[in-house]
Amino acid sequence: MRFDGRVAFVTGGSRGIGKGIAQLFAETGAKIGIVDVNEEALKETQKEFSEKGFEVLTKKADVSNAQEVEAAVKEVVDTFGRVDILVNNAGIIRDNLLFKMTDSDWEAVMNVHLKGSFNASRAVQQYMVDQKYGRIINISSTSALGNRGQVNYSAAKAGLQGFTKTLAIELGKFGITANSVAPGFIETEMTKATAERMGISFDELTSETLKSIPVGRWGQPEDIANAVLFFADEKSSFVSGQVIYVAGGPTV
Ligand code: NAP
Q: From CA 9, how far away is CA 56, in angstroms rounded?
């Protein structure tokens, strides 16, 4: 299969987009390491994936804590022998208009998205450099282009695009590529929480946003997984430092 012999490490992979990515890797032959802070979802995913016959190691770890991430990466390498692919997917939202945004809303979002991606990338690079092979994929967002109420999140997601390009420049000579997938509206708990916070039903949010999606539907986690697997493919070795928007149409 396409990812036979490969080991993928997915942050925030116990549910939503991360789970969809982990599942597609496993279905195409990869062994999977998943870290997440959501213990309940981690347990359910471990059980579900094991029952499907996937080789999976789940670990509770907060990506904003460097030691926890390093220990989890080491455990994956000790268990599966290597780490070939990192997907920096773990994410949170703390939306508010600028004048109402608190320091902790700002810091929490920066810590998970930016520091978390930095921690995990730094943790895997030593193994990838030794292997002379690696694929790093960072999950950005269409919000990187600006989105009302998301000054923290849009800054973090735009920051991830610069982070991606710099990783590509620094790590290319070691056979490591770095790319970014920027999703539009994807149906997950995160978007359901957005509707709740806006005080509208999920159906109302869906019908409102559908007006601006040319393909006429919301995205599903597997739509993002499909783009991630393109970047993660061994054959994509000449594609690096790129951002692909997966949003059912052009973004700007
Ligand atoms: P989700 O359903 O909320 O899943 C995110 C997962 O990451 C959750 O299990 C969450 O745990 C976990 N997580 C949060 N903070 C963490 C931390 N510090 N360390 C480790 N794990 C952590 O979200 P999603 O919609 O699948 O989003 C996945 C990624 O795609 C995020 O980076 C998001 O910003 C991005 N994205 C999503 C959309 C969309 O429309 N859904 C669009 C563009 C980009 P908890 O359950 O405890 O929070």
A: 10
In the chain, % of residues over pLDDT 90? 96
Q: Is the CB of 116 under 6 A from ligand 1?
A: yes
pLDDT in tens, 44-61: 999 999 999 999 999 999
For residues 12 and 25, give the distance between their C-alpha atoms in angstroms, rounded to a whole number. 15
Domain 7-184+219-242: state its class: alpha beta
* Ligand 1 nearest atom to the CA of residue 38, by list position: 47
What is the tens place of the pLDDT at every residue in 70-90? Answer: 999 999 999 999 999 999 999
**pTM, rounded to two decimals:** 0.98
Query: Can you tell me the distance from the alpha carbon of 228 to that of 204, in angstroms, rounded to the nearest whole number?
Result: 29
**146 C-alpha to ligand 1 centroid (Å):** 19
Best residue for ligand 1 mutational test, from 14, 21, 37 (most atoms within 8 Å of Cβ): 37
